[in-house]
Amino acid sequence: MLKVLITHAVTDEMIAVNFPDCDIKYVRTGIGKVKATIRLMDALVQDNPDIVINIGTAGTLDHSVGDVFVCRHFIDRDLQKVECLGLEHEIDSSALLTDKGYCCDWKPEGVCNTGDSFLTETADSHGDVFDMEAFAQAQVCQMKNIPFISVKYVTDKIGENSIKHWEDKLADAREGLSSFLNNLSLV
């Protein structure tokens, strides 16, 4: 039986996911890269999953509220600022997912840009969605050779009262993520 770990940052992002013939565990990581890293590491030791799926909400610059993106490419916008130091600030998790045959037909694909700040104004960064945890989780999974994918529901347009829109859209996000994920096959 395939062991699946579903991560989400806050309780209001948690949804039940139903993948047949899978043992599914959930972990709330908390907000931010450090908490996400620590809580994911603890869960990996405890549950030893075959795949980690991050679900949650994100802002966007160029897309619409209600859009859902499947992310296999991640950017750390904090480390990107000091890329001249040679620090890894981009991760692509596609190869390991493809090798294992997981989530191959999940679309639409997007780039997730992660940082330790909630963006409220246009950033000098690129990506389809902007969050605060996914890059850290992708990095942990890459280091542990565990397939990782992230599914993000767009709750707000950055620069347009983002925090208020995020709070108002959490119920819509749960419904949208549930509808999206529960109509997919893991393998």
Provide a descriptive summary of the structure in words:
- With 187 residues, this protein is of the alpha/beta class.
- The protein has one domain (2-181): Rossmann fold (3-Layer(aba) Sandwich).
- 30% of the residues lie in helices and 29% in strands.
- It has 6 helices and 8 strands.
- The protein has helices at 33-47, 77-80, 94-100, 134-144, 162-168, 170-181; strands at residues 2-8, 22-28, 51-60, 68-76, 90-92, 109-114, 129-131, 148-157.
- Strands 1, 2, 3, 4, 5, 6, 7 and 8 form an 8-stranded mixed sheet that branches.
- The chain is globular.
- One of its GO terms (molecular function) is methylthioadenosine nucleosidase activity.
- Residues 23-171 form the Nucleoside phosphorylase domain.
- Pfam families: PNP_UDP_1.
Structure, briefly:
By secondary structure, this protein is α/β, with parallel strands linked by helices. It is 30% helix and 29% strand.
Strand percentage lies at 25-35%
Instruction: Give the CATH H-level superfamily.
Output: Nucleoside phosphorylase domain
- Summarize the amount of helix as a percent range: 25-40%
Task: State the helix count.
Answer: 6
- Please name the CATH topology: Rossmann fold
CATH class identity: Alpha Beta
